[in-house]
Amino acid sequence: ELKTIADQVSEEGGELIMTLAERLKEQGRQEVMTLAERLMEKGMEKGIEKGIEKNRREMAKRLLRMGISPEQVAEASELPLKEILEIKREIES
């Protein structure tokens, strides 16, 4: 009878271990997916920010070419005056 109890405990323990292993595997998979999603989201945000920055610079170039003062261009584009002056030097050279 002791052997039967030991076999039963061993069998139930094995099932418990397998169940725990499956749960850990699924949890790990979910954590990896969550991490991948966060990385993708950050990449998209960074790309959007770069696009916005590029558009601001292009707008600044157009305004400067139209003869608008660097101070007004800085205000309109929300770029620092220093950057506007650099852009102005670029388009004048």
Low-confidence stretches: none
Portion of residues in beta strands equals under 5%
**Ends: how far apart?**
96 Å
Structural class, from helix and strand content? mainly alpha
Please tell me what the overall shape is: rod-shaped
Number of domains: 1
- If helices are DSSP runs of H or I spanning 4 or more residues, what is the number of helices? 3
H-E order: HHH
Radius of gyration, Cα only, in angstroms? Answer: 31 Å
Structure description:
- Helix 1 (2-65) packs antiparallel against helix 2 (70-77).
- The protein has 93 residues and is mainly α.
- It is built from 3 helices and no strands.
- The protein has one domain (2-92).
Quickly list its features:
single chain, mainly alpha, rod-shaped, 93 residues, 3 helices, 90% helix
Task: Provide a brief overview of the structure.
It is built from 3 helices and no strands. The chain has 93 residues and is mainly α.
Helices and strands, with pairings:
Blueprint: H1 2-65, H2 70-77, H3 81-92
